[in-house]
Design brief:
Layout lengths: L1 H19 L6 H4 L6 H15 L4 E3 L5 E6 L9 H12 L5 E4 L10 H7 L6 E4 L3 H4 L4 H7 L5 E6 L4 E6 L8 H15 L6 E5 L19 H13 L4 E4 L6 E5 L2 E5 L11 E7 L3 E7 L3
Parallel strand pairs: 1-5, 2-3, 3-4, 6-7, 7-8, 8-10
Antiparallel strand pairs: 2-11, 5-6, 9-10, 11-12
């Protein structure tokens, strides 16, 4: 009897939340309606072919900065996102920006996210987070933002840096994407890059299950990826998802979690990467 009551309460809460907030489909958080990782990966590669996503950016200086933000969770407001974009746009030393996922919080908010991005006229690169594929929204992400698995090269006058974007939005790379990044690194590490940086949404080291089924990779996948990155010269793995800054170093690779920038966050923040002969970073509080 007690179990039946619990089930009834849960169903009632889900039904009420869906009716009171039409764009928040709670069921979608537990039963994914977007294609799974292998299918999204194939669609991303097809998008890359059609739109030429994997390319080289020619930069005027060997030293540059990259602004990095994540977890804006845009609903009806996007003040922090707009402020971040305004700062990134004003910095002449920063040629492009990285967005690490969870750009929206619920259905039908991609137009709001794009509104928040308007101050940023420079090139920006993005990956999908778990909230971006909830409620069957992957197709909207693909149509609005584009691929979530790709690479690009930042070519400076005397060096070149490789950036690899991975889709970890449902807590795993999946079989096909994992093979892709293995093959990519096997080729690229022989091409003489100054730095190799991976960016995605989900962090690798499990702390708790607060994010449900999208919390983290399995331990087996974490072992495989950390070994892969260490063997192939990856220096940084940038991610979000946990809403709180943290830096872990393993086998010479820095795993950096960036603060959330969403409007309700008490201490929103972002990261500035300083890229030259050495890689350094600074965490920036959005609000003093």
């Amino acid at each position: 009897m007690q179990m039946k009551k619990c089930i009834f309460i849960i169903v009632a809460m889900l039904t009420a939340s869906c009716s009171l907030t039409p764009n928040l489909d709670m069921v979608g958080m537990f039963y994914g309606q977007s294609p799974r990782n292998d299918t999204r990966f194939e669609q991303s590669l097809e998008y890359n072919k059609e739109h030429g996503v994997c390319r080289t950016l020619a930069l005027p200086s060997d030293n540059y900065k990259v602004y990095v933000a994540t977890d804006m969770h845009v609903d009806s407001t996007w003040r922090n996102l707009t402020e971040f974009c305004t700062r990134a746009q004003a910095d002449a030393e920063s040629p492009f920006t990285l967005i690490l996922g969870d750009v929206i919080n619920a259905q039908n908010n991609y137009p709001h996210f794009m509104e928040g991005m308007k101050p940023l006229a420079k090139t920006w690169f993005c990956t999908a987070g778990n909230h971006d594929i909830y409620f069957g929204q992957w197709q909207q992400y693909l149509e609005t933002i584009g691929s979530s698995t790709y690479w690009f090269v930042a070519q400076t006058p005397s060096a070149k840096d490789l950036f690899i974007c991975l889709d970890s939005s449902d807590g795993t790379l999946g079989r096909k994407q994992l093979k892709w990044v293995k093959d990519l690194l096997a080729v690229k590490t022989a091409e003489g890059y100054r730095h190799i940086i991976v960016f995605t949404h989900t962090h690798l080291f499990k702390r708790d299950a607060s994010q449900g089924h999208t919390s983290n990779y399995t331990l087996e996948e974490t072992y495989e990826l950390t070994d892969l990155f260490a063997r192939n010269g990856v220096e940084w793995y940038l991610c979000g998802h946990d809403h709180s800054r943290e830096v872990t170093e393993m086998k010479g690779v820095k795993y950096i979690i960036v603060d959330a920038i969403e409007d309700p966050e008490k201490k929103p923040g972002y990261l500035i990467a300083h890229i030259g002969d050495k890689l350094t970073y600074e965490f920036i509080d959005l609000k003093p």
